[in-house]
From TrEMBL:
Pfam families: ABC_tran (PF00005). This is ATP-binding cassette domain-containing protein. GO terms for cellular component: plasma membrane. It comes from Paracoccus suum. GO terms for molecular function: ATP binding; ATP hydrolysis activity; transmembrane transporter activity. Residues 9-246 form the ABC transporter domain. SUPFAM superfamilies: P-loop containing nucleoside triphosphate hydrolases (SSF52540). Keywords: ATP-binding, Nucleotide-binding, Transport. InterPro entries: AAA+_ATPase, ABC_transporter-like_ATP-bd, ABC_transporter-like_CS, ABC_transpr_LolD-like, MacB-like_ATP-bd, P-loop_NTPase.
């Protein structure tokens, strides 16, 4: 793993509401994610995990403190710069957020089309390859209604990864899945991340994911209360994932 810093957060505070209803959700957060790392963010409901994820992903404005994403300071950044940064990220949410009227292939094509200027033919090719990678090459033309929960989440993973994002932000991606499908989705994310050097920040309540993490951050009441090296960071041989490298959608 290289030591290139992808996300660097210093002294981040965040509030919701105004006047008497104003409430602080994050307190003095410091964290750093290196390129290719797989970090799990845990903590009780309401501890601030989604707030932190959305701030890191340019989905919410930074009010106080510093969030540097791929070398860009997000606080006070112009909207055009935030839009360009968002295009370099892949998002996966608990609810897969697929368009029900579009096929699996069309849904993944939309993941390419967030980047302007990609010709339709190339977008289609990349989307088909991404679906092949997640094991759905025989389901390209299925509507979400005809896919299982695990298959829908795999389509969402393919959509997040098809643009070869620098960082993937995932909010409870396995919450709606059974044990086997959850393990499949996580292994897939890890394999592709390791093969491409994609940085992953994943919010979960799912203890089964912990042994896959390089780093486990725990939030409580808006503060990081522990930062542990995960078991996966102790793996010295990452070649187990290399077979995915040769077949990633964008090489
Ligand atoms: N849009 C909002 N307006 C007001 N308060 C909010 C808003 N979003 C979150 N909060 C508050 O901020 C705190 C952190 O919420 P957040 O959703 O980040 O927690 P979480 O750890 O992701 O919770 P969960 O595990 O239940 O998803 C909570 O007290 C929540 O009520």
């Amino acid at each position: 793993m290289s030591n290139e810093t992808v996300l660097d957060i210093r002294g981040l505070n965040h509030w919701f509401g105004s006047g008497d209803a104003r409430k602080q959700a994050l307190f003095d957060i410091d964290m750093t994610l290196e390129r290719g790392s797989f970090t799990v963010l845990m903590g009780p409901s309401g501890s601030g995990k989604t707030t932190l994820l959305t701030l890191a992903g340019c989905l919410r404005g930074v009010e106080d403190g510093s969030v540097r994403l791929m070398g860009h300071e997000l606080r006070d950044a112009p909207e055009a710069e935030l839009t360009l940064l968002r295009q370099r990220l892949g998002f996966i949410f608990q609810a897969h957020n697929l368009h029900e009227s579009l096929t699996a292939l069309q849904n993944v094509i939309m993941g390419v089309q967030v980047r302007p200027g990609v010709p339709d033919g190339l977008a289609r090719q990349a989307a088909a390859r991404a679906l092949d990678l997640v094991g759905l090459s025989d389901r390209l033309h299925y509507l979400p209604a005809n896919l299982s929960g695990g298959q829908k989440q795999r389509v969402a993973v393919a959509r997040a990864l098809v643009g070869n994002p620098a960082m993937v932000l995932a909010d409870e991606p396995t919450a709606a899945l059974d044990k086997d499908s959850a393990a499949d989705v996580i292994d897939l994310l890890k394999r592709l991340a390791a093969a491409r050097g994609t940085t992953t920040l994943l919010v979960t309540h799912d203890n089964r994911i912990l042994d896959r993490a390089d780093c486990i951050l725990t939030l409580e009441d808006g503060r990081i209360v522990s930062s542990d090296i995960g078991p996966a960071a102790k793996l010295t041989d990452r070649n187990e994932y290399s077979e995915a490298a040769s077949s990633s959608p964008q090489g």
